[in-house]
Amino acid sequence: MHLRMCEMASDWVRMVEDNYEVVGIYLSPVSDAYKKSNLAAAQHRIRMCQLAVEDTTNCVMVDPWEATQPRYVPTAQVLDHFRQEINETLGGIESVESPERKQARVALLCGADLMHSMSTPGLWSPDDLDRILGGDGGLYVVERHGTDLEEAKEALSKWTEHISVIPQGVPIDLSSTKVRLFLHKKMSVRYFVPNPVIEYIIENSLYGTSKEDQANQVQLVKGKAASSSSLA
C-alpha cells in the first residue's frame, strides 16, 4: 500500500497540481528506537524496502538515514534531513530548462490516520507541525477507509493551502499491521507485498514465520510465478 500511495501521489501532482513535478519519492523506515511492538530490526526493514522498490519506475528510493539513527527522530527532523541533503549538500535539483539548480519542495506523504493524529491536541508539537506543513513543506494525504478527515482539516486549517487530500478512487483497506497479522496466522500475503519481500521475510524468519515454513512458502511464491508465466 505504501508503494500504491506513491503512485497515487505522483498521479495527483501530475494531473491536479501540475505546477510541481515529482522528482523523487523516498521511503524512510523508522529507527529501532521507536520501540513499536512486532517491529522488525531496522536492517531488515531497510532491506525489505530496497527489495520492494527494485522494479519501480517512478523515482521511488529508500533512504536509510532515519532507520540507522541511535535515537527516535521526529518526522519534522527527518524532513529537515532531506531538505539539507537535497537543497544544501546537493545544491538543489538539476533542471533541463536552465543551468541553474532549483530548490526542491520537500513534503510528507502519509495516510489519513497520520494526518488525523496531527489534529489531536498535545500529540504533535506546534513547532514540528509548522516545520512539516508551513513554508516550503506540505502534506499529501491519501484517504483511508474509516478515517474522517473533516475534523482534522478544521484543526489544521492554519496550513490548509499546504495540505492536499488524495482520494483513493478504489478503496483499499490494507495496512502493515494487517499484513503482519496474516503472517502470524500462517496465511498467504501474496499480492499484498512484492514476492522478493515475501521471500526475504521467510528466509529471515520475520513476523512469526519460521524455517519450517521456508521450503514450502518460497517454493509456492517461485512456483506460481513460473506457472503464470508459462500459461501466459
UniProtKB/TrEMBL annotation:
Limits of the Cytidyltransferase-like domain: 2-180
Keywords: ATP-binding, NAD, Nucleotide-binding, Nucleotidyltransferase, Pyridine nucleotide biosynthesis, Transferase
Pfam family, one: CTP_transf_like
TM ranges: none
GO MF terms held by the record: nicotinamide-nucleotide adenylyltransferase activity
Record EC number: 2.7.7.1, 2.7.7.18
Pathway: Cofactor biosynthesis; NAD(+) biosynthesis; NAD(+) from nicotinamide D-ribonucleotide: step 1/1
Keyword NADP in annotation: no
Catalytic activity: beta-nicotinamide D-ribonucleotide + ATP + H(+) = diphosphate + NAD(+); nicotinate beta-D-ribonucleotide + ATP + H(+) = deamido-NAD(+) + diphosphate
Annotated Gene3D superfamilies: HUPs
Protein family (similarity comment): Belongs to the eukaryotic NMN adenylyltransferase family.
Protein name: Nicotinamide-nucleotide adenylyltransferase
Organism name: Sporothrix eucalyptigena
